[in-house]
């Protein structure tokens, strides 16, 4: 194995530990000597790996003290109202990418979703599963059910683009009701989001509505806990 490949592997291993929470924000990284012993490589290889991660804003070196884990910036969802993934990505100057895992039109869907969408017998929906990435890094997996009447011209190819834009060619989106829960990544979710099994995720179930409170889309999404926070404003009821 070449020296080039070795330093890249060590850098990736350290980065993965940061993503998985093995190394946490502001924690001091083990010494070059200890890392070299652990990975069975030279200290020069470790030094190159650390330099690469410093360039990527994963680590920071403090003179006379050592190398530390930089706090990782998270995407704040909800801070500017109801926005699509593509809109948030553009605001942050990041390149969004979408992989369509499943695209199908169907009438037979889980009862609780049909109820949320207020479907009648025989109504069709588009069932779409997508992996959303920023700068080539998977961020979230979306499991979507969209009423067919609001997406008549959609195709598998266009499903990789902004669905909000396509929906709003037919009806205006007004608001969304969300339920958020914390969970641990299963083997399948870990593989989809390139994290370790058992990593922290946020599961968000939401229903998107029109101005006249017509349900448009049911969204069951899984967000990486190391990359996302959710911000909400809560109002106290008058007594």
Keywords for this entry:
single chain; 239 residues; alpha+beta; Arc Repressor Mutant, subunit A; 7 helices; 27% helix; elongated
Question: Can I get a quick summary?
Answer:
The chain has 239 residues and is α+β, with helices and mostly antiparallel strands. Helices cover 27% and strands 33% of the residues.
Can you characterise this structure?
With 239 residues, the protein is an alpha+beta fold. The chain folds into 2 domains: 3-69, Orthogonal Bundle (Arc Repressor Mutant, subunit A), CATH 1.10.10; 75-230, Chorismate lyase-like (Chorismate lyase). The protein contains 7 helices and 10 strands. It has helices spanning 3-20, 32-39, 43-55, 85-91, 111-116, 163-167, 187-193, and strands spanning 59-62, 66-69, 75-77, 96-106, 125-134, 137-147, 173-184, 200-210, 215-224, 228-230. The strands form 3 sheets. Strands 4-5-6-9-8-7 form a 6-stranded antiparallel beta sheet. Helix 2 (32-39) packs across helix 3 (43-55). The longest helix is centred in the N-terminal third of the chain and has 18 residues, at 3-20. It is elongated, with a radius of gyration of 22 Å. The termini are far apart.
